[in-house]
Amino acid sequence: NAGVMQNPRHLVRRRGQEARLRCSPMKGHSHVYWYRQLPEEGLKFMVYLQKENIIDESGMPKERFSAEFPKEGPSILRIQQVVRGDSAAYFCASSPTGQGYEQFFGPGTRLTVL
Amino acid sequence: AQSVAQPEDQVNVAEGNPLTVKCTYSVSGNPYLFWYVQYPNRGLQFLLKYITGDNLVKGSYGFEAEFNKSQTSFHLKKPSALVSDSALYFCAVRFTGTASKLTFGTGTRLQVTL
């Protein structure tokens, strides 16, 4: 059973470009979470999705950031018009349900904005 | 406000000695508590969790944690540290009413030396 897959592992963008981060949850998992880790800091929750639904986006910046988890295919975290402050590691996690289960994390995508 | 704290940025211990990594939380209700470990340039690996039941929880790689409700703590322990345990450790809490998102502490770097 493959773990949580994220791609790309490293992404370099210039200011103003768009960044698309992909996450494929573990097989059988229908709950996906995105977290951001700034250098030397802990992980900060961004958004929680189930298939075709955003359940909790309380950690998402109000502008430029969006997330989706379509019926088919991976979950996508999209950052428009990136700025240097968006440089961070973005981690995706999945769980089979939302109740009490641990979340399984992917290897992360390290975004660098030049 | 609901929060989780890891009061030590770094813990140093000699191989073979017992280790403790501290975690405290501030919350109303009954939270779910987790420990994760992060190796350099990797995602987070689940170690153990407390949901309910026995206050002493055993997890992966010989780690255990004790839930103390009166002190609102969930310290991570291991009887005999290994050099390979050197990594960044995160305590995480799922607070009631937060739709499954995890709130992470700032992390504690464990350094085990020969």
Question: What would your notes on this structure say?
Answer:
The complex is a heterodimer of chains A (114) and B (114). With 114 residues, chain A is mostly beta strands. Chain A is 0% helix and 49% strand. Chain A contains no helices and eleven strands. In chain A, the strands form two sheets. In chain A, strands 2, 4, 5, 6, 9, 10 and 11 form a seven-stranded mixed β-sheet that branches. Chain A has a four-stranded antiparallel β-sheet with strand order 1-3-8-7, with no helix packed on it. Chain A is globular and about 40 Å long. Chain A starts with a strand and ends with a strand. With 114 residues, chain B is an all-beta fold. Chain B is built from no helices and twelve strands. In chain B, strand 5 (32-38) and strand 6 (44-50) form a beta hairpin. Chain B is globular and about 45 Å long. The model of chain B has no long low-confidence stretch (mean pLDDT 91). Chain A binds chain B through residues 4, 31, 33, 35, 41-45, 48, 55-56, 58-59, 91, 93, 95, 98-100, 102-108, 110, and chain B through 32, 34, 36, 41-46, 49, 51, 90, 92, 94, 98-107.
What structural category characterises the helix and strand content of chain B?
A: mainly beta
Largest interface comes to: A-B, 28 and 24 residues
Q: Quote the average pLDDT of chain A.
A: 92
In this structure, how is the largest beta sheet of chain B organized?
6 strands, mixed
* Spans where pLDDT lies below 50 across 5 or more residues of chain B: none
| Alpha-carbon Rg of chain B, integer | 14 Å
| Rg of Cα set of chain A | 13 Å
List the quaternary state of the chains.
Answer: heterodimer
